[in-house]
What we know:
By secondary structure, the protein is of the alpha+beta class. The protein has helices at 3-8, 86-102, 107-122, 130-139, 144-160, 182-191, 194-206, 210-214, 246-253, 268-285, 296-311, 314-321, 330-340, 356-364; strands spanning 19-26, 32-38, 43-46, 53-54, 75-77, 83-85, 221-222, 227-230, 240-243, 348-353, 368-373, 376-382.
Amino acid sequence: MERSKLTSLQCPECCCNELFRDGKRYLSSGEHVQRFLCRTCGYRFSEKSISPKRVDYSRQLCVFKKAKKLDSATEIKTGAGEGKTQQEAKGKILELCIYMKRQGYSQEYIRLNRTALKVLHERGADLFNQDSIKDVISKQAWSDNRRRNVINAYDMFAKLNKISWDKPRCTVAAKIPFIPTEQEIDALILASGKKLSAFLLLLEETAMRRGEAKRLEWIHVDSERKTITLNEPEKRSNPRIWKVTPRLIAQLNSLPKDCQKVFGNSSIDSMKSMFLTLRKKLAAKLQNPRFQRINFHSFRHWKATTLYHQTKDFYYVKDFLGHKILKNTEIYITIERTMFGENGNDEFTVKVAEDPKEIKALLEVGFEYVCQKDTLIFLRKRK
């Protein structure tokens, strides 16, 4: 079945169009129909709606595209000696995803937990044995953040399935994020294709997180007023609205409007794959290994640092990023002072005004009062 046809289908239970192919059903006439599994509510149905039924978690579930076909008699030995099939392990992962969906967790957080458990399972971990889990985790060359996320994902899995386990320690050291230059960001945007270019430009101007940008819908893009609204932010941050450039609006409007989301219903992994390929080519072509350190979140770090340098208003930067507490914004103050210096060579546009209406107009567009000499008022704004 073509991808366009798959995205046009909807789950008859929850009307979601995020589906997995779940094998084919062969009829007595010799024909066959495609079966689907809703990744949101777990509803299982066929293309022609023949006998839809709920998922049975004890069966083999075609949840992961790259999962190997395992014999139904294969068993995983648990600490208590109870046999658990490979199919049941995968079924329990899906059960956790459905539980998290019902509990109101974001789609991105569900995806991260599902991926973490899938990786553990594929690398030989017994999901029902804490010693096996700890052994596999200890052998991985993961970053502290990745290790913590995997441990937290399994902790939720263990609690849901009432598995007793002693959560291992994992300390994440605070690090200064990598800040690319504006020239490096512009090079990535200019070298990318139409869809990726619009995605990166959106990250540059709004400092959205990648999941927030991927879920952006057309109804939140106001082409006339040139604004973009975010009402469903990640990490429980505040909703935001931005005034964006005509260039970004034009690039977004050039994308096909064949679905509700601006960047389509495909996974963020496809966008990430294109980006990784692009930055590798640029790093080799321009002989600049710094490109290899740039990721989607680097655009958010760059925007926050640049914005504070331009405004010197950390409350404005806090609201722009959607942070609920100022502590999360303070890191950019430190970065800005280091990058640009306490007395950096800042450039300003200076205006001199005398008429009250002219002064009012300049203040409204961001000029700041500097001093007054006789009847003249001196104002300035960073370039």
